[in-house]
Amino acid sequence: MTRKNKWMIVVLLVLCAALIVTPVLALRGAAFGGSDDAGSVKVSEITGEAYEPWFTPVFEQMLGGELPGEIESLIFCVQTGIGVGVIAFLLGRLVERKKQENLRESRQEQ
User: Fold this and answer.
1) Total structural domains in the chain?
2) Which of 4, 45, 54, 59 has the fewest CB atoms within 10 Å, counting from its CB?
């Protein structure tokens, strides 16, 4: 690894850290609510009534209460990982298919 590459990695790591820290420091004491909370507030504003969910989540029914935040985050991360894996697999297939087509075309030209 060259000195230039090491310097670039350090700069990128510092920029990533700045992207993470800046919003937290700039918005001290702010409530970072989810889209579900914002949606239910908007529905209440539009209809003038309290929002009533159509159903309760399956896990909440089984546990008799809300899921702990850590478990909720874990399930979300697993879901994200599966989605990324599927997308990466499909993109890999497309790239490999293109390589095979180019190889076949180059063989036919010879």
Assistant:
1) 1
2) 54
